[in-house]
Give the backbone structure.
Amino acid sequence: MSIQIPDLLSPISPTWCPGCGNFSILTALKKALIELDLELKDLVVLFGIGCSGNMADFIKVNGFHALHGRAIANAIGIKLANHRLKVIVTGGDGDLYGEGFNHLLAAARGNHDISVFVHNNERYSLTTGQASPASKKGTVGKSTPQGVIEEAINPLALAISANASFVARAFAAQLQELVEMMKEAILHEGFSLIDILQPCPSFNKVQDNKWYLEHTRALKADYDLSNQEMAIKQVLKKGPIELGLFYRDQERPAYHQELAQLKNKSLVEQFPFKQDLNLGINDFV
Amino acid sequence: MEKIELNWKIAGKAGDGVMLAAKFFAKLCQHQGLKVFNYYEYPSLIKGGHQTGQVFASSEAAHCQRLHLDLLFLFHPKFLDFHLDALDEELLVLINSSNFDHSQYPQLKAKVISIPFSQLARQKVGDPLTANMMAIAASAKFFAFDLTKLTDLIKKEFVDKKKIIAKNLLAIDLACDYLDQSLSNSLIECRTKTLKIDQSRKKDLLLTANEAVGLGAIAAGLQFFSAYPMTPATGLLHYLAAQQAAYPIVVKHSEDEIAAINQALGASFAGVRAMTGTSGGGYALMVEATSLAGVAELPLVILEAMRPGPGTGLPTWSSQADLNFIIHAGHGDFPKVVFTPGTALEHYELSKLAFYIAEKHQLPVFILSDKYILESQQSMPQPDLLIDNQRLSLLDTVKTGSIEEKYLRYKDTETGISPRAIPGLNKEVYLANSYEHDQEGFATEESMIAKQAMDKRLRKIETMLPELPKPAVFGAPVKEADKILISFGSTINVLQELLRLLDDKEIAKPAIIHLPCVAPFLTKDFEELFDWHKINEGRQEIYTVEGTATAQLAQVLKANSRLRKIKSLLRYDGRPFYAEDLLQWLVSAKISEIYQIK
Ligand SMILES: Cc1ncc(C[n+]2csc(CCOP(=O)(O)OP(=O)(O)O)c2C)c(N)n1
Ligand code: SF4
């Protein structure tokens, strides 16, 4: 049976600030899960540590509230242990582009079949608003009173160059587009990344909903999303922030599809209730 | 069968094939029906340097390497300088050279023969690499091995590679002829060391403790192993990676140690038995996730393969100095188990037990061991090869009351163990949480719920105590001995060899206590070993024998038992203890300055 609204209901209500972009991301995620023909038991959602990660308590699913930065690594382990599960990672830009960026690049290179949804508010909000790796050069914060010296990272360019097979950007407040993008990402067989622009009215006052509407535009309708080189050029372009799917490779097999031992059954289905050590001792006799 | 013992060593540069040769010779000894211990020393580099493989084989027991050698094979004459200590008149040295200048070593008592194996291999076999096989053949001949076992072994190892087999067989003939000539020319008395060997072979396995841990893991149903290479844990990664062809296992070489342990925890959450392995520096990166395993109650087995620190330390040498680090690793209070196996067999058994304890009690279990035993090969009796496994503490296997009852993943139970649902397999869903959480798994900051959750987890310690391996006693009874030696991990191999050496001696044997589990500490079982009147009156001398500089085991004993007066015999230069040195210490109270008494 597919997922129904009450299934996802948690006993805890969100504790986010009014106007926080996390509300619409949670709504979009729930909508996407309900609209996809999934069974609740076959879904695992992992959460980072941050305001965004607090979503773990606001939705009732098989969840894994990971350590800061590490959810992608946990997700890969989950997927390899049982590739029949749909595995989704959600977390902040501090978590996924800062503390744990290494894991994101590795997951992209491996084309692990997980979906990563980054709540990108350009801040470390839960720790009271310090600059994140996605903050613009010059961002002033309590830990960077003279302004950030580093340039902001370009996560999409990095993901595409690491051969991620599904790379997109969305805006939290455009709910229906976000729902559709999430559904596509979840259905994509391979690594998918959606960089979700998320307003944080408490710590990123400049980039409110209005600012995002003024500074973003959709990718052109005739955009060719199968050209990796062009995609990198596209995401490096200065000017308005573009929203949409920049790159998709549907040919590349997912990591688990390349493992012979997972051809017929998932690992967890192959638990060795009877184990025979004769092959294991071959070199020792 | 008469008692047979032989000590053999090979030394060369990295790239000479020393390790392969020693492995081959060790296997040959095994095939002659002997118990074997094969110890390697090598520097952390790929070409050059000085490395050795050292095989002690015995018809009785081979616990560890021995100091005195019967046969030493040197790839390069200048390496003689490294071995001058070990050169007594009983020893035959074979040097891979066309001549050897005896006048340079006027003090030398050992017999030295120069045999230009490399030259022979190049000129007569057409493959310089066969010099190794010549060394092995000459050794086999010297020890009067059954040479057909050697040819059988070559055919088995190089199966399908006809040319290589032919070359090696030719190399054997050449080497044997050459040795015959040399011995009859000048040094016939070496032959008096000839060993007659019983051919009836026992069913033993010869493997490193890394491999024993891997075999135990497979026996216990390991299905996911993620790691980042680091000496001396790499052997486990390589063994398990190769087993993917034979078993339903996934081995992931991860991007770093933090990823490795977190991937293993993900796999564990998804219901497979999972493990990671590394050395101290790599484990330092895994500490945070160990604590996650504690709070989220995820089963995990971790091999921590010790080498000397601090920092990058001595990468290819041994140590036991991560003892306190591992016992205390992880922020916050949570139950964990630290096994410290000694022999290869105990590594196999405790590796199996580690998976059982981890899954049943839903917590991290360490196998804390060291380079010395993990990279040495040791004989162990072949275990049962057909194994039945059960799943433990899972939702299906535990009675959960009425069906309508809400599923509580972290249900507060008397044992502290709560039934675990597996995503995808159970219809019940739950949140595994790195935050403190209520019984359902949701984060909480309520004081009573937080206390209750902590108490529940810590209660598992009491529950598991009866299932943990107890201290083992060897030698004299603890209550009667004048001296009590206490060790953990690999040191028991040397202490058991010490007991064997004491068999022929007049002096009293010490009592030896080996601790296979250091956390939770089995205080009751440990304290029951002693006569506390004698201890309190100071009538017995107690020493820890350990590979640390700060007597860490003595600290652990003081923290967990009533023992107060403990001295320590320490070695922390990366090398193992030698039974011969310990014997001398017992006899004369003197010991080389490479050791320290504290
Ligand atoms: C290892 C570790 N380091 C630091 C922290 C503290 N910490 C909690 S949340 C956070 C940053 C969160 O930023 P982000 O991921 O962008 O999430 P947001 O709160 O903005 O949603 C930090 C640094 C932590 N929990 N763990
Ligand atoms: S601080 Fe920012 S990100 Fe956090 S809840 Fe408030 S608005 Fe949302």
Remarks:
- The domain at 207-380 of chain B is CATH 3.40.50.970 (Rossmann fold).
- The pocket of iron/sulfur cluster (ligand 2) is lined by residues A 16-17, 20, 22, 51, 121, 125, 200-203 (CB under 6 Å).
- Confidence is low (pLDDT under 50) at residues 188-192 of chain B.
- Residues 33 and 142 of chain B are 17 Å apart (CA to CA).
